[in-house]
Amino acid sequence: MSGTTLDYHNDSLSLSVIEALADELEADPVDLEPLYHAVDPEALDQLFQRGSTGEARVTFTYEAHEVEVRSDGTVLIDGAVHDRS
Asked: Where is the Halobacterial output domain (predicted)?
């Protein structure tokens, strides 16, 4: 099972979530409702910043979709793992 893996040098985790949501909703990321209406993107990025130890998961609802973010950078939407394009 492959998933969205975070590149800590080039992307923030919140950007990976936005890309996965845009893919799921078949929309341009700029047309999406702001992520901060569902979760604090800065807090999400800080929680999973590079050098963090242990495993963590954050789950929230975005426009009736369940989003799960894992500390390894994996993003799941409604239980489906989203690959980077």
From this structure: 10-78
Has residue 4 been placed in a domain? Answer: no
Instruction: Note whether residue 29 is domain-resident.
Output: yes
Query: What's the number of domains the chain is made of?
Result: 1
Which range of residues forms the domain containing residue 62? Answer: 13-81
Per-residue confidence of the chain (85 residues) as pLDDT tens digits?
345 554 544 568 899 999 999 999 999 999 999 999 999 999 999 888 766 667 889 999 999 999 999 888 899 999 999 875 5
For residue 5, being part of any structural domain is answered with no
Spatial CB neighbours of 6, under 8 Å, sequence gap ≥ 6: 13, 16, 48, 72, 73
> Model-level pTM greater than 0.85?
no
Are the C-beta atoms of residues 3 and 68 closer than 8 Å to each other? no
